[in-house]
Amino acid sequence: MSPRSASVNEELRRRSRERLLQATVELVGERGFEATTLGDIAQRAGAARGLVSYYFPGKRQLLQSAVHRLMHLTLQAALERAPRPSGPEAGRELMARAIDAILGLAHDRPLLMRTHMAGILAADGFIQCPEQRRLAQLLRETVVAYGSSDPDADYPLLRALLMGAVVAMLLPGAPMPRVRLRAELFQRYGLAWELGDAHADGAVQAP
């Protein structure tokens, strides 16, 4: 049997990594961070335990990459959903979809997103990874489509506002309603309420 080509090996590594990231999202969402072991993740992914350590230095880094992947896929699906925005209002529609996508994740996966935000605020801080860079690129492209003349300044602000909204939604004991946070973000960016997912989910009906 001839040896596999470099491209085949690269694709196999990519798939293994994707399975580990997906398994992490599933298990932490089901059990919580502390109750999920790296062995559990490897077993769910159908991978050897050592493979987890090969790709990720620890469980916290693995979780951040996994959630960033989920956020990227969710945001990408929202931005590309038919009908694709066009015309002079396309940038506003894309911004509205981006806001709704991230708030929607906090609403639909509170345990996972709360754990993710807690990790970012912990000593390990914000971890740069391929998944985070892909998410950042999508958000930056959204800012550009919205009409920003300084995306290098406006992208970090959008990221901070979205992170703050997620924390506010998930704050134990004093959560803010998703609809209120959506209203504040839409006002900040001058977005009409009917843009984005306003009609797709009753949770975001006008306040």
In a nutshell, what does this entry contain?
The chain has 207 residues and is mainly alpha-helical. 69% of the residues lie in helices and 0% in strands.
Plain-language structure description:
The chain is mostly helical and 207 residues long. It is built from nine helices and no strands. Helix 5 runs antiparallel to helix 7 and helix 5 (90-108) packs antiparallel against helix 9. The mean pLDDT is 90.
Category by helix and strand content: mainly alpha
The major β-sheet equals: none
Strand content: under 5%
Name the helix and strand elements from N-terminus to C-terminus, one letter apiece: HHHHHHHHH
Low-pLDDT parts are none
Helix content percent band: 55-70%
Shape: globular
**Span of the ends, CA to CA:** 65 Å
Give me the Rg, rounded. 18 Å
Per DSSP E runs of 2 or more residues, the count of β-strands stands at 0
- Overall mean pLDDT: 90
Number of helices: 9
What key attributes describe this structure?
single chain, 207 residues, mainly alpha, 9 helices, 69% helix, globular
Give the arrangement of secondary structure elements:
Elements: H1 6-31, H2 38-45, H3 49-55, H4 59-80, H5 90-108, H6 110-121, H7 130-146, H8 151-170, H9 178-188
